[in-house]
Amino acid sequence: MTQTRTIRFALPKGSLQESTFEMMARAGYPVKTGNRSYVPTVDDPEIEARLIRAQEISRYVEHGALDVGLTGYDWILENNSDVIEVANLVYAKQGLRPVRWVLAVPNDSPIRRVKDLQGKRIATEAVNLTRRFLEKQGVRADVEFSWGATEVKAPELVDAICELTETGSSLRANDLRILETVLESTTRLIVNKKSWADRWKRKKIETLALLLKGALAAEEKVGLKMNAPKNKLKNILKALPALRNPTLSPLSQKGWVALETVVDERVVREIIPQLRAAGAEGIIEYPLNKVIC
C-alpha cells in the first residue's frame, strides 16, 4: 500500500486561532481540536496540522520541523527567519485589516516624539523589531522583553511600551497614547526552501494558498441572483456593481433573463431597492465561501 504524502502545517494558537479556523473552513479545510489541542485534525489526509504560538512558527518552518505555516509578518522579522512568503492574507482577530506595532506612552507622559525615548526603558514582546526601529531613528534606549500584560507596565515599571494593536481600544483603556507606528503587519503563509523545492509539496501549498485567498476574498462579498425583463436590463446593469460583467441566462418565459453576480456585501442594502425599482424581480442574496479571481 502506498503511504499518503503529507505536509506539516502550523496554525497559530492564540488570538488568531478562531479567525484562522473560520478561514480554513471556508477554504474547504475544516479544522477540529480534541483533547490533544495542539494536534488538531484537518479534513484532508495530506495535511498534518499543529497548533503553535505565532511567535515561534517562522523559526520551526525555517528549520524544516514544519513545512508550512500561518504567522504574522512581524514575527518573521522579529525572528529574522529566512522563509518563502507564499501568500499575504490580510485578516486579524477582529477583522480583515492589518495590525500595528506601536510605541505608546501614558497620556500624561512628557514624551512627545520618538527622539524623547533616548535613554528610556521600553517593554515589548518584539524586542528585535523595536531595537531596529529605534536604531533607524538614532535613538538608544533600554528595550526589555515583556512576558505579557505589557500595557499595565507604564509608567510604574517602564517609560514606554511597544505593543501590538488592531483597534487601539486596549491602549486607550489603559490610559496610553500612541507615539509612533513601528510596523504594520499582516498574516503570511510561509514555507521553507526545502519544502518549496519539492514539486508535490509546492503544488499542495500553492493550492492551499489559492483557496485561502479565495476564502478571504469572499469574506465581504455576497452573491446576487435575480430575474429581469430584457427591455429593462440596461437600467438594471447600471445599478449593479460587480467583479466582472454578470452572468446572464435565458428563462423559459420569453423576454426574460436570469442574472447572477458577486457584489460587496456593504452595498447590498443600497442597491437591492434600486434593482427592484429598475425592474428586477425574484432577487436572492446568498453567502459565499470562496471567490477565486
Strand order within the widest beta sheet:
4-1-5-12-6
| Count of DSSP strands | 16
CATH hierarchy class name of the largest domain: Alpha Beta
Query: Could you list the spans in which at least 5 consecutive residues all have pLDDT below 50?
Result: none
The ordered H/E elements are EHEEEHEHEEEHEEHEEHHEHEEHE
Total number of domains: 3
CATH superfamily of the largest domain: Periplasmic binding protein-like II
Describe the structure.
The protein is of the alpha/beta class and 293 residues long. It has three domains: 7-96 and 187-217, D-Maltodextrin-Binding Protein, domain 2, CATH 3.40.190.10; 99-184, D-Maltodextrin-Binding Protein, domain 2; 221-287, Alpha-Beta Plaits (2-Layer Sandwich). Helices cover 29% and strands 32% of the residues. The chain contains nine helices and 16 strands. It has helices at residues 17-27, 54-62, 73-78, 127-136, 169-173, 193-197, 199-217, 233-238, 265-278; strands at 7-13, 31-32, 41-42, 47-53, 68-72, 84-89, 99-106, 121-124, 142-145, 160-165, 176-185, 187-191, 221-229, 247-250, 256-264, 281-287. Strands 4-1-5-12-6 form a five-stranded mixed beta sheet, sandwiched between helices. A hairpin with an 8-residue loop joins strand 2 (31-32) and strand 3. Helix 1 crosses helix 7 (199-217). The radius of gyration is 24 Å and the shape is globular. The relative contact order is 0.15. The model has no long low-confidence stretch (mean pLDDT 93).
